[in-house]
Write a structure and sequence with these properties.
The protein is an alpha/beta fold and about 350 residues long. It is about 30% helix and about 20% strand. The chain has two domains: about 5-250, Vaccinia Virus protein VP39 (Rossmann fold), CATH 3.40.50.150; about 255-350, no CATH class. It contains eleven helices and 15 strands.
Length: about 350
């Protein structure tokens, strides 16, 4: 609350917040072997009343809203202790919730007392500042990260253990250090290289470390001297690779220049009279016409119209029609020709 007011309004692209959970722990917790569980006992997680916690939450969320750009988004993580209160305040402040994401911990801490279910997940809320604004969501990056399948809202990621867990004198440097894989997915999905990512509860610097690896700028705010020392050492130790767009930017077909099928005919990538074959049913063929339409049996239309007719449902003609590639001696989707055409245009523009 000292630092955020000094930031310019609408200067941040993305906020990730891992605030105190207000765990309301009562007494020590022991394992069956009577060893003490190293839980969260720090003063920064203690609030006298829910009213005090709500006031604190409203204050920092209001400042985050002020510094977010109109098309910016905010992620906040929490447990059942606090996330419902945070979500209510988010909506009160006119944030628009886009998703709630469940972080499923593949290796959660057991419930040692055996009186409740093992708490094996935390909840993330993803919200945009202005309902209806064009926010960043790198859908295709998430799909590629998930082996070609749409990324779901249940994320199976282990908690921070092993060599990733930062320790000092044999003890955890921070009780709630988040795994880098979690921040990697958040930052990759909802920001772009060069964007500014704000973390108002920086802790040991996970957000900063991942932001540097992905070529984002970051602002981290932290009040605990021990965490600041650890975070600085950690972030300064990240070797940032030289920025190479093909490495860090996932192509989004929706942002590519539109190429009509007829352009391939006009520029000689396909010729009138050439045959196209339907993927999976190569015995079905259509003829390329001089005006950029195709003829299948007695029906003429666009590559999409004819594909819809053949499949009797929604279809993308670019991926369903193939041509015979003489040089390669195999069938190729016509989408390959569209990509080659785009590359040729780009190269010509560079030459000109």
């Amino acid at each position: 609350m000292d630092v955020l007011p000094t930031l310019p309004p609408e200067s941040v692209d993305l906020v990730f917040a891992d605030p105190p959970y207000n765990l309301q722990l009562q007494g020590d917790l022991y394992r069956p072997n009577l060893s003490l569980v190293d839980g969260v006992s720090e003063e920064w997680d203690k609030f006298d009343t829910f009213t005090e916690y709500d006031r604190f939450t409203r204050a920092w969320l209001s400042e985050c809203r002020r510094v977010l750009k109109p098309n910016g988004t905010l992620w906040v993580i929490g447990s059942y202790h606090n996330i419902y209160r945070v979500g209510k305040i988010l909506q009160d402040l006119n944030f628009w919730i886009l998703n709630d994401v469940v972080w499923v911990k593949s290796n959660p801490m057991p419930n040692f007392r055996g009186v409740r279910y093992t708490n094996a997940h935390e909840t993330l809320l993803w919200a945009q500042k202005e309902n209806g604004s064009k926010y960043t969501f790198n859908y295709h990056a998430m799909k590629d990260l998930n082996e070609g399948l749409q990324m779901r809202s249940d994320w199976h990621i282990p908690i921070c253990t092993g060599s990733e867990r930062i320790k000092e004198n044999g003890k955890k440097a921070h009780p709630t250090q988040k795994p880098e894989a979690l921040l990697y997915r958040i930052i990759l999905s909802s920001s772009n290289p060069g964007d500014v990512v704000l973390d108002p509860f920086f802790g040991t610097g996970t957000t900063g470390a991942v932001a540097r690896k992905l070529h984002r700028h970051f602002i981290g705010v932290e009040v605990e001297p021990k965490y600041i020392r650890v975070a600085k050492k950690r972030v300064n130790g990240i070797l940032q690779l030289e920025f190479d767009p093909p490495v860090f930017v996932t192509p989004d077909p929706r942002r590519l220049e539109r190429i009509p099928f007829g352009a391939l005919v006009e520029h000689g990538y396909l010729t009138p009279g050439q045959k196209l074959y339907f993927t999976g049913q190569e015995e079905l063929s259509a003829t390329v016409l001089a005006d950029g339409a195709i003829l299948y049996l007695n029906q003429r239309g666009s590559i999409h119209e004819i594909a819809r007719s053949v499949r009797n449902g929604p279809s993308n003609g670019w991926t369903l029609w193939q041509y015979w590639d003489e040089a390669a001696q195999l069938m190729q989707p016509i989408d390959n020709l569209r990509q080659r055409f785009r590359e040729d245009i780009l190269n010509n523009d560079k030459v000109n």
